[in-house]
Write a structure and sequence with these properties.
Blueprint: H1 2-14, H2 25-30, H3 35-64, H4 74-96, H5 98-104, H6 115-126, H7 131-161, H8 171-186, H9 189-196
Helix pairs in contact: 1-7, 1-9, 3-4, 3-6, 3-7, 4-5, 4-6, 6-7, 7-8
Amino acid sequence: MKSVIYIILTAAITNNYVLVKFLGICPFLGVSKKLDQATGMSLAVIFVQLMATAATWPIYHFLLDGGIDFTYMQTVVFILVIAALVQLVEIILKKYIPALHASLGVYLPLITTNCAVLGVTVNNISDGLSFGESMLTSLGCGLGFFLAMVLFCGVRSRVAEAKPAKSFEGLPITLISAAIVSLSFFGFAGIIGNLFG
């Protein structure tokens, strides 16, 4: 149980794909204005990451790396799997939660090219993780994405109420705010290692 918590916390906080590794910045900046959009996008990313890992790990180990070496096709195959899963999420949201589907707009299909989702699946393979460890890491990364989105949504709501200098309005203050939130996550690096070390 201790190692399960360690893997999830490390993936979510210490190695946060958005705030530490800077992957998945497009939806992070684009869909973090409203809490419901940030939450919906985060849940969609968590689902796609878990399903993508569940599909790509066996595909890599039993098809691409089995018998004949097709590992050079890894990125193409992984993107195709992720694209199919995103289409599934889009169909489900359009049918059962049309308001969320409409509010996510173009950012929902962009999960296909969200480098955080692809990065998790590729890093699980390159780090030599087992299937269970890969699933836990994907869950942790998804929860880290959720945490980053919700935190930044709160920061953006506070920034929207403030009146920055004219030259900082819009994108500049958003990027500065993202940098400050990102810096705060670098402080967690030693804490989690010491808790479980």
